[in-house]
Prior knowledge:
Elements: H1 3-7, E1 20-24, H2 28-39, E2 44-49, H3 55-59, E3 66-69, H4 74-83, E4 88-92, H5 108-115, H6 122-135, E5 139-140, E6 155-158, H7 166-181, E7 187-191, E8 194-198, H8 204-211, E9 220-223, E10 237-238, H9 240-249, E11 253-256, E12 262-263, H10 266-275, E13 279-282
Parallel strand pairs: 1-2, 1-4, 2-3, 4-5, 9-11, 10-12, 11-13
Antiparallel strand pairs: 6-13, 7-8, 7-9
Helix pairs in contact: 8-9
Amino acid sequence: MAQDTIQRFLPDDFDATKPMVVIAGKGLYPQLTCARARAAGCPVRLVAFEDETAEELWDSFADGERERIKVGQLGHLLKALKRFDAANAIMAGQITPRKLFKGLHPDLKAIQILATLKERNAESIFGAIAREMEKMGVRLLDARVFLEDQLADAGLMSRGRYVPDADTLAHGVRVAKALADLDVGQGIVVNNGTVLAAEAFEGTDKMLERGGSFDADHPLFVKTVKPRQDYRFDVPVFGLRTIEKMDAAGIAAAALEAKNVLMLEKEKVLEAARAKKITLLGY
């Protein structure tokens, strides 16, 4: 991996000899992050969440290099960072959304933090966690780090059976940006000037199912980022599962914000898109 790929999202004073902790949620994202960080020579440690983090990733760390906690145990997380003598941390991978309502296990530290927040959304909660880390001397890094080559490219990445025209794309991007600015979601499905579905708390998969349920001629999925996106804990992801869901829903085109949307296993995603005749373009 080229040195400029490693460095683009790292702070100038990043010290690759000091322990870096990956706070790992679900899926491939934290696994790929750990693999890339190790390949770059960083001493990596793991904080995993019960019933969320893949066992495969957990098993790849020695006992002294890993810690498992329940979702909501902020005090335990901070103690793990201290035990690992961490200088930096990365949050990678989603936590099951419903656990914010059922299955959350807040410890005393988490309860204290939540009590200070006027709004309880991802940005406010994780921003508060980042501030607690900073008090300990642990910096929360841009979660795109080590994955520069996995970001969406500008222009046509794969040509399928339908390529949206400029007006359709512009309408989709405009509406998606407006909803993202309101912190509703980061994706929509549009068709010839009509919004078919918007992403909210239920996530991308359910939105794609709804968007494909109207038998529209040429639905387009648009994935964007917030105008003031905090990439330390909120990176939009597009992967093989998304391709499968689009194909099942009959949505033959997706527009992804270039250099901001993460395409995990990018080459496999592009190969799958070509096989299913799905257009992928970066704007």
